[in-house]
Prior knowledge:
Layout: H1 9-19, H2 24-31, H3 35-59, E1 62-68, E2 73-78, E3 83-90, E4 94-99, H4 111-124, H5 131-134, H6 138-149
Antiparallel strand pairs: 1-2, 2-3, 3-4
Helix pairs in contact: 1-3, 2-3, 4-6
Amino acid sequence: MALPYGFTKRKLDIWSMRRDGLSLSEIARKLGVTRQAIHKLIKTIDDQVIYALKSVAIASKIDIRYVDVNKGILLGYSYETNNRVIVTFSTIHGVQIWHHHSGNCEGCVSNENCRKIILDEAEERSISLTDDEKKLSPTELASIIFSRVIPGLEP
Length: 155
């Protein structure tokens, strides 16, 4: 994958470590730099993640309802589809848009690609799934995964 939105591998690694719960001091120790250097860099990284999420939402005519830069997630609403939309930022897949729907994933040509990406999203966010959950359609998987990431979101 090409690095999204002007990110460097180092910035993505730092963002990922913070998303995984490491403190700025722990990240600094791990990278052999000062906490102040990480603090300054995190501000730049946060701005880039927010820009990526919001620019995709705006371009897709998504009404923004909730953003969590630390988790790389945006919850919005599409008046075109009359449904919620989730925009994610991932170190593996960059920015992805997930439309809430109850369509037939099994008949879709993108089914396996969507399944791989949503399972990668879960793994990258350290979300454990049961074997039965892993067998669900990408739409059902997305509902479960994002309900565990966004407070108060019903699957």
